[in-house]
Design goal:
This protein has 16 helices and 13 strands. The protein is an alpha+beta fold and 535 residues long. It has two domains: 399 residues, ADP-ribosylation/Crystallin J1 (ADP-ribosylglycohydrolase fold); 112 residues, Galactose-binding domain-like (Jelly Rolls, Sandwich). A hairpin with a 3-residue loop joins strand 3 and strand 4. Helix 3 packs across helix 16 and helix 11 runs antiparallel to helix 12. The longest helix is centred in the first third of the chain and has 22 residues. The radius of gyration is 23 Å and the shape is globular.
């Protein structure tokens, strides 16, 4: 069975002038937005014009950029909490240009996306995984969490997928690949399994388990959004590729169920998700802490925006942003899905204002602009269509729609549960006071694992590399380097998992102390073999 889009032509832009207007589905609307509901899972091919394919890819990149810009002022300002209604989130003509020039680091998820796009451009669809790993490991831009741990791992000889495995990367469940996986869906329109294959190669460089599932889920939604306009179907199709026994699948199921119970008030679903899931992050930064960079709960906020946004571009972004936590990436992901559905010409004018001012500007740390990204992803999609048996002509493309397959089950922190958080630093923000480490630091704990958080810093303008040893129960278990250089730093100083349950003593030793650099300790997280009893 095939569906022919080619006669429909490209969609036209809605003339909605304010964010409160609503876009309706499954009809030809007076404002001229064409949407056609089709069932991806029951079709072998879908044909659309090449102009429509290009328009959808442009719409995805443009909308993601708009969404990230929109949420940037509240990114991680409200952790495990909603952004209050009285907190205005600005949008005006010139705001995109202002953010691109004054806060280029706001687009870290996009320039990581584009690093992978560039490798496909340079080396083709069969580029080896090490090329993708090197693309960000050797770059000069700042990274955090799973990306930074993976960068350190790769630079120190640990190759993918070991670089992203939770035993080597305590941030494996974090959001990193989830906010970078857009490209994988855009280069595989209607071909969910192909997007998963790309995600398997690249996502395991820095993530594992629920962290990897986040990227698979986002890529699958993008891929499906080329051939399906019903948002609930897009979400369900994507979550169905994630194993049901995973926490990632369970939290998205919870969002869907809460939306079914009360489809009119997103706060109802937010409260249910926050109560059940906000403190389930096992990454060292998030363990027993309201700071939540965990992939699954941020994916829940993406879905919250999509389901309660009712297809309205502004409403979708606002809900995804006001849900809190990673409040720029989440509206970026949600908007990107809508941008794929509606296409570039279907993005409301209110949100397009000022976009043409930045489309020719290179994103920070890249030589790629939005205009470049539009064309590169379009060409990569054509290559993937041909590879998977589809047809490409000057006028149209025929997509070989794939029946999505469930990915293998994997889980981080198996047999590890949150037990204790020892905060060594005091204060917050600029007033935060860390504990300066002497030549050694020791502590005891009862459990099966731990992580030591801190950072090495230079006291002058010269970079320095500390050498350090980790001793557990009197035995040397690891030697590591701690660069003071922010780009090459070791994100977590030391960690050790899968220890026998019981009492342990830990000693960290600096082998080459310096008067020109020091090590600041932030805190320690302790893992137990059993879940703590709830109060």
């Amino acid at each position: 069975m095939a569906f022919d889009f080619s006669a429909a032509g490209p969609v036209r832009r809605s003339r909605m002038k304010k964010p409160g207007a609503r876009i309706l589905y499954h009809s030809f609307i007076a404002i001229g937005l064409l949407v056609c509901s089709i069932k991806a899972t029951s079709q072998e091919t879908v044909t659309m014009s090449t102009a429509m394919l290009r328009d959808k890819i442009k719409g995805a990149w443009a909308a993601q950029t708009i969404g990230v810009t929109y949420g940037f002022p509240v990114e991680f300002r409200f952790n495990s909490a909603r952004v209050p209604e009285e907190r205005e989130i600005p949008w005006y003509d010139g705001y995109l240009l202002e953010t691109m020039t004054e806060s280029p680091g706001a687009y870290d998820d996009i320039y990581m996306d584009l690093a992978f796009v560039q490798i496909f451009e340079d080396e083709g669809l069969d580029a080896p995984v090490q090329s993708f790993a090197n693309s960000f490991a050797e770059a000069e831009y700042s990274l955090w969490f799973a990306n930074q741990v993976a960068r350190y791992n790769v630079l120190n000889g640990l190759t993918p997928p070991e670089s992203g495995h939770w035993l080597n990367n305590p941030a494996a469940d974090d959001i990193d690949f989830q906010i970078e996986a857009d490209f994988a869906g855009l280069m595989a329109p209607g071909m969910v399994n192909s997007s998963i294959e790309v995600s398997d190669k690249i996502g395991h460089i820095m993530n594992y388990g629920d962290g990897w599932y986040g990227g698979v889920f986002i890529a699958a939604m993008y891929s499906t959004a080329f051939i399906e306009n019903d948002i609930e179907t897009i979400v369900q199709t994507a979550i169905d590729v994630i194993p049901e026994e995973s926490d990632f699948h369970k939290i998205i199921d919870d969002v869907i169920a809460l939306h079914d119970e009360n489809p009119d008030d997103w706060n109802y679903a937010w409260e249910g998700i926050n109560e059940e899931w906000a403190f389930t992050d096992l990454g060292p930064r998030g363990l027993m802490n309201d700071f939540n960079i965990d992939a699954k709960i941020n994916a829940a906020w993406v879905v919250l925006g999509l389901l309660y946004g009712d297809g309205d571009f502004g409403k979708t972004m606002e809900i995804a942003a006001r849900a809190g936590d990673d409040a720029d990436c989440n509206p970026g992901s949600a908007a990107g899905i809508l941008g794929t559905i509606y296409g570039y010409e279907g993005i409301p004018d209110y949100w397009m204002q000022g976009l043409d001012d930045i489309e020719s500007m290179d994103f920070a740390h890249t030589t790629i602009s939005l205009n470049d990204a539009y064309e590169m992803s379009f060409q990569h999609a054509l290559q993937m269509i041909r590879r998977e048996g589809g047809l490409v002509s000057n006028a149209s493309v025929t997509l070989p729609v794939q029946t999505p397959e469930v990915v293998p089950f994997e889980k981080s922190f198996v047999g590890h549960f949150a037990k204790e958080r020892r905060q060594l630093a005091t204060g917050s923000g600029r007033d935060r006071q860390f504990v300066e480490m002497e030549d050694s630091y020791s502590f005891d704990f009862d459990g099966v694992g731990f992580a030591v958080m801190g950072t090495a810093q230079s006291l002058n303008d010269e970079d320095y590399v500390f050498e350090a040893e980790l001793h557990v129960d009197g035995e040397l278990v690891e030697t590591a380097t701690w660069p003071t250089n922010f780009v090459t730093r070791r994100f977590y100083l030391f960690w050790k998992y899968e220890l026998p349950d019981g009492q342990h003593s830990v000693e960290v030793k600096i082998l080459n102390p310096s008067e020109d650099a020091n090590v600041l300790l932030d805190g320690i997280t302790i893992y137990g073999a059993e879940e703590l009893a709830s109060n």
